[in-house]
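WARN no homologs supplied; continuing
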Amino acid sequence: MQTMTESSTDERLDRLEERVDEGFAQVDQRFQEVDKRFEQVDLRFAQVDQKLEQIDGRFDRMKGEFKSMQGDIKAMQGEINQRFDSIHHLMSYGIIGICGAIVTGFVGVLGFVATQV
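OK structure emitted
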């Protein structure tokens, strides 16, 4: 009877060993699938990194364009200031000329009145 029990125990252990081996084989297969998924994730991260580098390049170009635009705006402000200065001088000289004409006319009237009296 002991041999029968030992043989049935051996058979059970053999079956258990086969089942454990099958389980480990399935786990190994799942780990391989997970590794493949991680490879895909790594590729996606590489793509995201490339896109971020492109975006950084775009921002750098935009900064350069903004700096050149600032220079253009400063140049235009200088031109506008010159034109306003020209208008200011023109109006100032015009007002001085009008005032001079009025004073000259007033002096002329006073001279005429003085000769008439």
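The mean pLDDT is 88.
OK
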